[in-house]
Automatic annotation (TrEMBL):
It comes from Apiospora kogelbergensis. The lineage of its organism: Eukaryota, Fungi, Dikarya, Ascomycota, Pezizomycotina. It comes from the Eukaryota. This is F-box domain-containing protein.
Length: 382
């Protein structure tokens, strides 16, 4: 603000040296004002408006009718974002902006991120199912869920939702599947990591095969899941999603379809992969370990960890978010995918690397002084 006043004073001094500009009449609305700013000639005001950042011009236009008449903010995306950001910052303790209906909805500090009961984070009726993300067990995520968390990070304390606690278990068949999501903000981007793991105490074929059979909504992302058991991955046309993780397909076809034979048993298997559509990386590990009790008994654990980069969550038009919620052939026209951004920043494995780096920084002795990362889940299950 100090530099802004200095600029006005410099322009005022320049005006006094030019008699033509000094004698130029000002609008009637400005003649009775004692404001140095409003008493400037129109050409000076227009010169000022050409050098103002969009957010300052938007703020002046919202608070001053003369500035609104003079500046006439153009209906550009930059100006719309600046006006929305300036307004949302002032009302963020009570409301959030809805990109579906263009209105501001109220929210409550009592909302629980991982609850679908009365205290859960509701989804406004103006939003369509296409705006939601149905994945990770019981949760139905929507854009405004992450938007509210980013508001808390950007606008300050009390301007959004605080850290969610994720500790659900899912029981399916004879196998206990566990899910552990963790949310983080790294470099102004929202990241979500989910760990899926299950254990078996013995190796009957019917029990082991349960590891590869999960409910239809168990999706690692919208493009890879644990289903399509009877559809070989090679028979799915290119671009048809969801499809099973390649590692799951290999294990299921070699281990269970061909019979549970000693020569086909897999003691340890691990790999890494990525989604070609959205910014999702994953790790896959199958390991055997001895069980306490009688000698010779063993169990094996299937451990899958996914890493999702959701973007800055400032607009649902961000290609990172659009790719995350896309559903293959049902995606909107003009969808930008990860395949179009295969560079150093979005290469396969880059999302996991950024997550691991943030995790390492968060455990340093003086990590409180670091700007990033901001961790929202403090649970570390083993």
């Amino acid at each position: 603000m100090f530099s802004f006043l200095k600029a006005i004073q410099a322009l005022h001094a320049r005006r006094t040296r030019r008699s033509a500009e000094r004698n130029r009449p000002t609008p009637i609305a400005m003649q009775q004002s004692n404001s140095l700013f409003l008493n400037q000639p129109l050409d000076v005001l227009l010169t000022i408006s050409d050098h103002l950042p969009p957010e300052i011009a938007a703020a002046l236009s919202l608070t001053c009718k003369v500035a609104l008449a003079v500046f006439k903010p153009k209906n550009t995306d930059a100006n719309q974002r600046a006006i929305r950001h300036a307004f949302e910052k002032n009302v963020s303790k009570r409301c959030f902006y809805c990109f579906t209906c263009g209105k501001y909805h109220r929210y409550s500090k009592s909302w629980v991120f991982n609850s679908y009961a009365a205290h859960g984070v509701p989804i406004p009726p103006c939003q369509t199912p296409r705006d939601h993300v149905h994945m990770i067990g019981i949760w139905h995520f929507a854009f405004h869920h992450f938007q509210l968390i980013m508001n808390e990070h950007i606008f300050g304390e009390g301007c959004g939702l605080l850290q969610p606690e994720f500790e659900p278990n899912l029981y399916y068949g004879k196998v206990v599947w566990r899910y552990q999501p963790t949310l983080a903000i790294l470099g102004g981007q929202c990241f979500l990591s989910v760990r899926y793991w299950a254990d078996l105490d013995d190796t009957p074929r019917e029990n082991a095969s349960s590891l590869f059979r999960c409910p239809d909504w168990n999706m690692f992302c919208y493009h890879f899941n644990n289903n399509r058991i009877n559809v070989p991955i090679g028979e799915l046309p290119i671009g048809v999603y969801p499809r099973r993780l390649p590692e799951l397909h290999i294990l299921y076809s070699k281990w269970f379809v061909n019979g549970f034979k000693p020569e086909l048993e897999i003691n340890n298997y691990s790999s890494q992969g990525h989604c070609p559509v959205c910014l999702t990386d994953y790790t896959f590990e199958l390991s055997r370990r001895p069980l306490p009790g009688p000698a010779g008994r063993e169990k094996f654990r299937l451990d899958i960890v996914t890493y999702h980069q959701l973007g800055a969550c400032r607009t649902p038009d961000d290609w990172k978010w659009r790719a995350f919620i896309s559903k293959g052939p049902e995606s909107p026209p003009g969808l930008v995918t990860r395949q179009q951004y295969i560079d150093s920043e979005h290469r396969p494995g880059a999302v996991k690397e950024r997550w691991d780096l943030g995790h390492a920084l968060s455990h340093e002795e003086n990590h409180e002084t670091l700007k990033y990362p901001t961790w929202y889940s403090n649970s570390h299950l083993t």
